[in-house]
């Protein structure tokens, strides 16, 4: 008599714990295989001796802290639009270049010396424009017609920075210090991090016990070295004071080879060596900067500046655009070797070359001559200067991959410092001036909108 066949479960399934362990094992193996051979990025299980630092660099007091909420982004941390080299290879290449490089762009430019009522010399429009065509031996106005009011100790320290320098500035206690993330193990010791403060911001740090109230030659907050600037000896406008370290970094750090400017509302999340190596060195350019997410034409940005009250002197904005149109500024077109005329200058990566340093000097002069809104003078200087600037204007997606953007700190004065961006850019009028009279920018606007000039 035969035995009736019966189906039975595998032996391991009779043990719930064993069953779960087997499932976990196969899931883990699948993820390891996927991240090693299939996934284009190493965004999972990145714990190895070669990976960037994961732990916070500095713990703030609870009364201070960073701003709680970053602006939203739709980027994926596992989907990078830019290729980053291995950290140790990039570190080696950058250090070798810094050690072997003997020619500095700042040494190939000669600067006008002298004393003036303003830090930048307050040159006339025609005089500023005369320096755009640069030849060897010509002296260029580049600020420092008044002493930059920092201590001798800070000045010597800045001159000793010989590789990459990362700089930022906070005036009027308008932002909070944000520590960079994703730094490689050697970066805090190989890269100079400098944050320029005024007395108001410094008192805020002292109030929160982040730095000592006792006078000392050096103050550190995390990786940032704090440099106090006596702003009353510079400009009344705090934004203009921030322009000095932003664009004259090659003069403040005359021996550095590369620099990264970051607005105080920005937090770096990628190592500076990787940023410079991928966006400047590998692209063989002088400068890398993000294009603006909304505008491509300079006058679009000028109109938005007036519309959203980013600058109070609207007549001054009109005069500035009239001046640039009169001196040869053209609207953006595919014939230009750049993808846009309007940058997002919250992050600027520079090789301190002759072209980059000349561009920085010329742009700074325009900002003193008109206003500190650097996006308005950017294309005018870039397009009309000679020698030409090799520029990498990278996509907004790259910006979102390498940085986290926060809102400015709000003051308790009942006035919001936030500016709401338009959902859709409004079309410009065919007449730039509100009174309808003829404008030197009429031709610019007609080309901008593809209209006939007949």
UniProtKB/TrEMBL annotation:
Give the organism's phylogenetic lineage. Answer: Eukaryota, Viridiplantae, Streptophyta, Embryophyta, Tracheophyta
Recorded protein name is: TOD1/MUCI70 glycosyltransferase-like domain-containing protein
Task: Say if the entry is tagged with keyword Translocase.
Answer: no
Q: Mention one GO biological process in which this protein takes part, according to its record.
A: intracellular water homeostasis
User: Which source organism does the UniProt entry give?
Assistant: Solanum lycopersicum
Q: What's the superkingdom here?
A: Eukaryota
Q: Name one GO molecular function term.
A: N-acylsphingosine amidohydrolase activity
Name the residues that span the membrane. 12-37
Any Pfam family from its record, for instance, is TOD1_MUCI70
């Amino acid at each position: 008599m035969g035995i009736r066949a019966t189906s039975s479960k595998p032996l391991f399934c009779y043990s719930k714990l064993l069953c779960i362990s087997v499932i976990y094992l196969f899931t883990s193996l699948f993820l390891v295989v996927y991240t090693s051979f299939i996934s284009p990025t190493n965004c999972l299980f990145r714990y190895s001796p070669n990976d960037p630092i994961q732990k916070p660099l500095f713990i703030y007091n609870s009364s201070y802290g960073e701003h709680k909420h970053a602006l939203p982004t739709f980027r994926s941390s596992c989907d990078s639009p830019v290729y980053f080299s291995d950290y140790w290879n990039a570190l080696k290449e950058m250090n070798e270049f810094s050690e072997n490089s003997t020619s500095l762009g700042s040494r190939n430019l000669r600067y006008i010396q002298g004393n003036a009522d303003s830090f930048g010399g307050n040159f006339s429009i025609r005089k500023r424009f005369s320096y755009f065509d640069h030849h060897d031996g010509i002296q260029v106005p580049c600020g420092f017609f008044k002493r930059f009011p920092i201590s001798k100790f800070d000045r010597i320290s800045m001159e000793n920075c010989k590789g990459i320098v990362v700089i930022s500035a906070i005036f009027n206690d308008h932002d909070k210090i944000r520590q960079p993330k994703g730094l490689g193990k050697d970066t805090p010791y190989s890269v100079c991090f400098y944050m320029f403060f005024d007395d108001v911001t410094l008192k805020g740090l002292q109030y929160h016990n982040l730095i000592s109230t006792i006078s000392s030659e050096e103050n550190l907050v995390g990786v940032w070295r704090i440099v106090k600037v006596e702003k009353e000896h510079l400009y009344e406008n705090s934004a203009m004071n921030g322009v000095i370290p932003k664009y004259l970094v090659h003069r403040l750090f005359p021996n550095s080879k590369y620099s990264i400017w970051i607005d105080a509302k920005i937090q770096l999340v990628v190592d500076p060596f990787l940023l410079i190596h991928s966006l400047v060195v590998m692209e063989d350019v002088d400068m890398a900067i993000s294009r603006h997410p909304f505008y491509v034409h300079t006058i679009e940005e000028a109109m938005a500046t007036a519309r959203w009250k980013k600058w109070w002197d609207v007549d001054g904005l009109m005069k500035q655009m009239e001046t640039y149109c009169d001196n040869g500024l053209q609207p953006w077109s595919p014939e230009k070797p750049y993808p846009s005329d309007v940058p997002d200058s919250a992050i600027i990566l520079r090789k301190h070359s002759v072209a980059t340093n000349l561009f920085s000097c010329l742009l700074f002069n325009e900002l003193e001559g008109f206003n500190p809104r650097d996006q308005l003078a950017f294309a005018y200087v870039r397009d009309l200067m000679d020698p030409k600037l090799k520029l990498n204007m990278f996509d907004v997606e790259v910006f979102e991959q390498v940085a986290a953007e926060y809102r400015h700190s709000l003051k308790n004065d009942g006035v919001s410092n936030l500016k709401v961006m338009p959902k859709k850019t409004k079309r410009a009028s065919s007449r730039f001036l509100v009174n309808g009279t003829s404008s030197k920018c009429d031709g610019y606007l007609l080309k901008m909108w593809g209209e006939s000039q007949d």
